[in-house]
ABC transporter domain-containing protein
Amino acid sequence: MVPQNPKLPDEISIPDFVMLGRNPHLGLLQWESKEDFNIARKSMSLTEIDYLSRRKLGEISGGERQRAMLALAITQQSPIMLLDEPTSNLDIYHQIKIMKLIKKIHTLKSGFGVTILAIHDLNIAAQFSDRILLFSNGSIAADGMPKEVLTKNNIDSIYGSEVTIITHPEHGTPVILS
């Protein structure tokens, strides 16, 4: 689980924080193995935070903290990954990079079985999701593939705003314009 705005300890080093993802795999009095350290290093490299290895959580930006949280989740190697606004606090480069990484990890056989995102950016959701659920007043209002769910009628009625929807020229996914 990667929450949107977690309370994190400022004094922990980035590698030690990412290594916390291995805790579920350790016995009561067991120390991390060489393999555990390699998994954490690979996760830091995948999320492009390996350059932060000498820094502490309290010394880095919000976007870097978000990527550290994702590195921890990847290090855990859970069959289910829950992400709450994984692109918050990130510039457009890192938003796309993180979403491509999540998609890649999800599709790898050794990766996660199920990835669930809570995300408000419908255009990013359309581009990177296989299935979308739209909620209205706590209930599922629409469920299906992005092309089926992100329609003008659904967006106008659920969000109370008039939009224009075009098809992305490269991805073929819906793009919502206000």
In short: Strands lie at 80-84, 114-118, 132-136, 139-144, 164-167, 174-177. Residues 123-178 form one domain. The longest strand covers residues 139-144. The mean pLDDT is 89.
